[in-house]
Amino acid sequence: FRSEYRMLLNEYRDGILLFNHMEEKVWKKAQRDTVGLEKYFETNKGKFMWEKRLDAKLYICKNDSVATAVKKMITAGKTSDEIQSDLNKTSKLNLKIEEGKYLEHENDYLDNVKWEKGTQTVMKDGQTIIVIVNDIVPPGNKTLKEAKGLALTAFQDYLEQEWLKELHNKYKVEVNKEVLSTIPNTP
Questions:
Q1: What's the pLDDT tens digit per position in 111-154?
Q2: C-alpha–C-alpha distance, residues 20 and 15, integer Å
Q3: Taking the C-alpha atoms of 135, 141, 147 and 151 in order, what is their torsion angle to the nearest 10 degrees?
Q4: Helix (H) or strand (E) holding 58
Q5: Beta carbons of 49 and 123 less than 8 angstroms apart
Q6: Helices (H), 34-147
């Protein structure tokens, strides 16, 4: 029982030591080294790409009568804020407006929209959606701001690999085959 406890305690201690080293050499370093992150990102821009996207504005209308009113107001040159303000006076559920760049299958309302510029009307879950496709955005590089999470994770992986190379160069790895043979194989 004592030897099992000692092994468990050593494993716990080693795990904490490894965690502390990883935190210092990789995770914190990646967060603090903004210049290194920018340099890594610039060198590896090809890893952080947008697919083709749809630049669109969606008017999600409660029903056909709201959709008809929206179309008239758009034709009259009213802004989205003016349209939403006018139509949502009686109920905030009459009209919802979304605008942005969307990947394919990212927005359920756009699943049945043709990827071409212009105005289209689609039905979804009893609602009428007026979609104004402003542009089809071709694939391209993300900015560091757009890819921050992915870039930070990739930079951490890079720092970890560099640290492991440094350790391999500094220390010789020796495997004690007698001890290794005593460790049971686990599935």
A1: 889 999 999 999 998 999 999 999 999 999 999 999 999 999 99
A2: 9
A3: 170
A4: strand 53-61
A5: no
A6: 34-43, 64-75, 80-87
